[in-house]
From TrEMBL:
The keyword Cell membrane does not apply. The gene is LOC114448408. One of its GO terms (cellular component) is plasma membrane. One of its GO terms (molecular function) is sialic acid binding. Keywords: Cell adhesion, Immunoglobulin domain, Lectin, Membrane, Signal, Transmembrane, Transmembrane helix. SMART domains: IG, IGc2. This is B-cell receptor CD22. One of its GO terms (biological process) is cell adhesion. Predominantly monomer of isoform CD22-beta. Also found as heterodimer of isoform CD22-beta and a shorter isoform. Interacts with PTPN6/SHP-1, LYN, SYK, PIK3R1/PIK3R2 and PLCG1 upon phosphorylation. Interacts with GRB2, INPP5D and SHC1 upon phosphorylation. May form a complex with INPP5D/SHIP, GRB2 and SHC1. It is found in: Membrane.
Amino acid sequence: MFLLIWTTVFLSGISADTGASVWGQQHCPQQGYCVTLSEGELTAEAGLCVVIPCSVTTIFTPRHVIWSKCKTAEETLWDSNRIFHTNKSQSVQSEFRGRVSLLEPDVSQRNCSIMINDLRESDSGFYQLRVEGSKQSEAFTFASKAAVTVKGLSQKPTVVIPPLTAGQQTTLTCTAPGLCSGSAPKFTWSWRGKTTAYKSEETQRHTSALTFNPLPKHHSTSVTCTVSFRGDITTEETQTVNVSYVKEVQITGSRNVTEGETLSLTCSVESFPPSLITWAKMSESDLQEDTDTFTQDQRTGALSIYNVTAEDSGQYVCTATHLNKTHKMRNVTVTVICEYTTLCF
Ligand SMILES: *[C@@H]1O[C@H](CO)[C@@H](O)[C@H](O)[C@H]1NC(C)=O
Ligand SMILES: *[C@@H]1O[C@H](CO)[C@@H](O)[C@H](O)[C@H]1NC(C)=O
Ligand SMILES: *[C@@H]1O[C@H](CO)[C@@H](O)[C@H](O)[C@H]1NC(C)=O
Ligand SMILES: *[C@@H]1O[C@H](CO)[C@@H](O)[C@H](O)[C@H]1NC(C)=O
Ligand SMILES: *[C@@H]1O[C@H](CO)[C@@H](O)[C@H](O)[C@H]1NC(C)=O
Ligand SMILES: *[C@@H]1O[C@H](CO)[C@@H](O)[C@H](O)[C@H]1NC(C)=O
Ligand SMILES: *[C@@H]1O[C@H](CO)[C@@H](O)[C@H](O)[C@H]1NC(C)=O
């Protein structure tokens, strides 16, 4: 008994290692009649599609392929539960009409694989095959069935957001899960829960593109793409967008400072990502980048000069460097007011 279990584990290990290219086992209920269906259960999600792989061998040349759906593995009822017939004049269950197709339209290829689109959870069941030839006597119903389970839709759309820069038109894309040939899904884009007025279009059957001009106000807001499949089946994906932008430089603090006191100025700029802020003092001739004479903080933009003297009067320039390439400047004139000495003037 132990040996038997061990052998089973060992063999299944081998088939996993070799990649298990075999998708099913052939069943030959009668000489000359064989069918290969997937072993085990096929699982799929509502709104998407499923392929039931199938290949068949018959003594006669197949002319028609017929599929039926049974609720249990034992049930066999032919005409009432038919879901597909290659002869379009033959009736099929109304709920399957137009949703089932053969992967290989040439029936004589003995490839009986079908795809069922716009899946519903009620499509779960056992699918059974019948093959008919050109003569009345040429027909065979296979007892083997392919088990299909359809679960609620859990896959989400894929939203792709390129790096966004304020003022530069851009396109976001949303791709629906599944690649089925059934009804094309519907796309809805929204910002913070409100349907957007920006233009979107389906660039492909399963992809929607939203084109817009990003603004600073879009930074750190959320965009949602909702995909609706036939039968009120929806799925959505939300992402937070980052927009790189830089606004105008602002300087705060008193420009007039009494000799001996501290000059405190703050330079700030609203931007994403944060900018680096540097202060420099203008001399008569040119801009001094000599920052030894005062302390500054590149993140907060604070400039402090303790114990100011008349020499500290003049023009100070604040430069905000954004993303290493955009430089925004603003200058301020500082006046040191003399109270204690006459050296000021
Ligand atoms: C399809 O079915 C109709 C109705 O039974 C029949 O008259 C017709 O001959 C069939 N066509 C083929 C190609 O088998
Ligand atoms: C059936 O045909 C489809 C489409 O050509 C193909 O992808 C699939 O592999 C075929 N299946 C078999 C069992 O030959
Ligand atoms: C947005 O920026 C934040 C902070 O820099 C970062 O953590 C996040 O991953 C960014 N989001 C996207 C979608 O790029
Ligand atoms: C600074 O002083 C100048 C004259 O010295 C005056 O015109 C200006 O209004 C003062 N500015 C502030 C903010 O006090
Ligand atoms: C301020 O500067 C003056 C002139 O350079 C100096 O005499 C004084 O000691 C300084 N005061 C402080 C508190 O550093
Ligand atoms: C900015 O540019 C300098 C020199 O070109 C480079 O060394 C540095 O890595 C850059 N920084 C960023 C954040 O791109
Ligand atoms: C300083 O700023 C003013 C306006 O804010 C501008 O007119 C002037 O040209 C600037 N000076 C320098 C040297 O950048």
